[in-house]
Amino acid sequence: MPKVIVPLGPQHPALKEPGNFTLMLEGEEIVDAALRLGYNHRGIEKAAESRNFIQAMYLIERVCGICSHAHATCYVTNVENICGLELPRRAQAIRVITGELERIHSHLLWLGVAAHEIGFDTLFMYSWRDREYIMDALETLSGNRVHYSINTIGGVRRDIGKEQIEDILKKLDLVESRTNYYIKLATQEPTLHARTMGVGKLPKEEALKRDACGPLLRASGVARDVRKDDPYLLYGELDFKVITSDACDVFGRVYVRVFEILESVKILRQVLNNMPQGPVSVKMPPKVPAGESVTRYEAPRGEDIHYVKTDGGVNPSRVKLRAPTLANFESVAYMLKGDQLADAPLIIAAIDPCFSCTDRMAVVDKLSGQSQIETFKDLRLKSIEHYKRKGIDFSKL
Amino acid sequence: MKSIREQVAAWARTASPWIIHFNSGSCNGCDIETVAALTPRFDVERFGIVQHGTPRHADVLIVTGAISKQQKDRLVRIYNQMAAPKFVVALGACACGGGVLQGCYGVLGGADKIIPVDLYVPGCPPRPEALIDGIVKLLSGIKGVENA
Ligand code: SF4
């Protein structure tokens, strides 16, 4: 059978950063996959060196529009460590609240995107509608829907009031009941099972070998979560479970994420009902001493690691960050091998989806040298058709 | 006064503008808000707006993010593939003029450095309402309504 090379990307709705996958096909089966990154390279790390510490915080926050709080918290924690600041407990609690709300909104967003990839648009609309409750909660808390900028060096910018706490608790009840519905759907809906079970297999050993992290790793049966393994903020005192699944496939990733929403709700209730009293920030020293620091943070997509080095000047002298998606890309190439082309959008979406762009791909038939441009949409429709022929159809739901 | 033909053309153009969304180096904040605008809470389909995958079928190009060096040529290519009449919306502070990413070595600046822009929606990111407001203004502009 002739081998066909399919470049996927760089514009791809299932990728956070526009990336480029080159898939080698034999018939419908993917026999090899290679990856190229860097389309979204802006030079933020370098730019942070020419901003002062506060400005750099706002810049680092804008690395990503979904895990903005994760990046900002990771960075400020580093600066606070270097300054030797002790964070007030109320500030820590507010950071936990923002972080967990962010996790819920990110997981709901992911659920919608994954549902869209398999052609289940009703679920996409449902989960994005429910996500709006969380966005409202984040907005009342911080004043913004996406880049909350709640952090400042030495604490948080805003305190949380009694009405806000009640408001958030009410929204959590809503989200919890909706999540239970999604759990029912995920565990009982046969069409969903047919599209996700056995797709994008990543066995435990392979996941560990490839340094996967976050929900992807937990869906391969490894209970690794920075919040448990190396507690930061208040996580050491909170009661929550690390959700894992032994399914090692896309279904496992759905399972882990929906149950994590419930765990986040649990964490939020604990924190909101027992808010520590006291100030929300301490004063930042006028001069940041020379030093260096590394921080880990469990972002919605996995472990986020930041490194900051200072030399006593007004700017950080080096900022380095490793986002979880980068760690997970290695596994994607593995998971794609041996799967169907029709499943490629879902497998890529399963690690870390983001609706960032509209995509085009070119199918180049090596033997005939013919090239044909296909959009991502065509690929998605193709995958839906492919499964319709097998009797799996969401349009009737 | 416009001729009947112009009026019909304007009506046809504004009844269902199809948008294509291009991430030219954004942080995703703007992209997510664009998608949020399509979902039930905001629902831009009320105005006949549908997001579409191919530039050849789209009328409105929504650019999010400061233009990164890697994405510049691709943006131009997508713009050239769109059939006239075409409109460009720069969504977010980054696309309007570089925003917080100004001066990064991988960034060229706002979208108007590369392609002509018809409408700027500022904000970091703009709320979905701002996007809806922007598109409705664009449509009224096409219709020829003053100060909509
Ligand atoms: S304007 Fe703000 S939200 Fe939009 S891409 Fe730029 S940094 Fe991200």
| Major beta sheet summary of chain B | 5 strands, parallel
Give me the secondary-structure category of chain B: alpha/beta
Overall pLDDT of chain A: 81
What is the CATH third-level topology name of chain B?
A: Rossmann fold
Order of helices and strands of chain B: HEHEEEHEHEEH
The name of the CATH architecture of the domain at 68-289 in chain A is Orthogonal Bundle
Strand portion of chain A: 15-25%
Strand count, sense and barrel status of the largest sheet of chain A are: 5 strands, antiparallel
**What fraction strand of chain B?**
15-25%
Structural class of chain A: alpha+beta
Helix content of chain B: 25-40%
CATH superfamily of the domain at 68-289 in chain A: Cytochrome-c3 Hydrogenase, chain B
Please tell me how large the radius of gyration of chain A is. 22 Å
Low-confidence stretches of chain B: none
Q: Separation of termini of chain B?
A: 18 Å
The gross shape of chain A turns out to be: globular
* Ligands and ions found: iron/sulfur cluster
Protein chain pair with the most extensive contact, residues per chain: A-B, 45 and 42 residues
Looking at the overall shape, the CATH architecture of chain B is: 3-Layer(aba) Sandwich
Tell me the distance between the termini of chain A: 37 Å
Describe this structure as you would to a colleague.
The complex is a heterodimer of chains A (397) and B (148). In chain A, 47% of the residues lie in helices and 15% in strands. Chain A is α+β, with helices and mostly antiparallel strands and 397 residues long. Among the domains of chain A are: 68-289, Cytochrome-c3 Hydrogenase, chain B (Orthogonal Bundle); 365-397, no CATH class. In chain A, helix 5 runs antiparallel to helix 6 (162-188). By secondary structure, chain B is of the alpha/beta class. Chain B has a single domain (4-147), classed as Rossmann fold (3-Layer(aba) Sandwich), CATH 3.40.50.12280. Chain B is built from 5 helices and 7 strands, in the order αβαβββαβαββα. In chain B, strands 2-1-3-5-7 form a 5-stranded parallel sheet, sandwiched between helices. Chain B has a two-stranded antiparallel ribbon with strand order 4-6. Chains A and B meet through helix 1, helix 5 and helix 14 of A and strand 1, helix 2 and helix 3 of B. The complex binds iron/sulfur cluster (SF4). Iron/sulfur cluster (SF4) sits between chains B (26-27, 29-30, 64-65, 92-94, 99-100, 124-125) and A (62, 65, 146).
